[in-house]
Amino acid sequence: MTVFVKRRELAAAGSIADALDIFGSEIRFYREIAPVIGIRVPICYRAEETEDGTLLELEDLSAWTPGATPDGAAHTLRLLHSRWEGEAVRRWPWLRPVGAAVDLVGRLYDETWPRLANLPPAVQAVGERLVGNVAAAERQLLDAGPLTLVHGDASAQNLRTSPTGEVALLDWEDVSAAPGILDLGWFLLTSVDPNDWPATIAVYGHDTGLDDVLPSLIVQGLLSLADHSPDSPAAETWRHHLDAAAKRLDN
C-alpha cells in the first residue's frame, strides 16, 4: 500500500495560516468529518498534532486523473453542500466562520493591489472598489445562503477522478462553514472556462448567492494573480476568468 505523507511545520506567528489554523483544521477534518462526510476523500490512516506541527498519512490517489470534469465537480459539490446544510455548524462548532482573519486578508489585498497591472477594465473597476472594503465583501457572504460544510479551495488542483469517474476532494486545510455557492464560485473562477459556467451551474442546480460571493472570490483571485509573472499563461487565464466574474457583477 502506498501512503501519501503530509507534514506541516507550525505556521508563522501572526500569518494568515496561523490565524486560520489551517493545519490544525485539516487534522480535525480527517479525525471528525471525513468518516461521515458522504463524498469521496482520501482514507486517513494517521492524523496527529505535535508541538512541531502536524502529520497526516493518507491514501495515495496520485494514480487517479488530476482534476475533474466541470459536471463531475459540480455534482460532487452539490452532494456535499446539500448533505450538511444547516447541520455542519451544529455538529462541528469549531469550523472556521465567515470573515475569519478578514483584517489580515484585507491588509494583504490593499498592499497587493497597487502592484497589479494590465487588468481588463471591468476587473480594474471592481478591484479598485474592493480596496479598503474587503471586510464588507466578506460580510456579504452571509447573504449568499444557508451555512453548510465547504471545502474552501475547490479548484481543479484539489480534485482527482478515478478510472470509474468517481471524484475525490483533497487538501482540506480551508474547511469552513459558509454558503455552499462559495465553493462553486471558486471552482468556476479557478477551473472552468467562462463559456462553460452556465452548464456547470445547471449541474449544481442553482446560482443563488453567486453574485454575493463574487467580490470575496475576486479578492482571492487577484491575490492569486499577483503570484504569477504578468506575461505567463497562468496570469492570462486568471485575467480572463476574473474579467468574466467582474462583468457578471456589473451586469
UniProtKB/TrEMBL annotation:
Keyword annotations from UniProtKB, A to Z: Transferase
InterPro entries: Aminoglycoside_PTrfase (IPR002575), Kinase-like_dom_sf (IPR011009)
Pfam families from the UniProt entry: APH (PF01636)
Coiled coil stretches, renumbered: none
Keyword Transferase: yes
Superkingdom field: Bacteria
Presence of keyword DNA-binding: no
GO MF term set: transferase activity
Domain Aminoglycoside phosphotransferase: start-end pairs: 113-209
The protein's name: Phosphotransferase family enzyme
Organism: Kribbella voronezhensis
Record lineage: Bacteria, Bacillati, Actinomycetota, Actinomycetes, Propionibacteriales
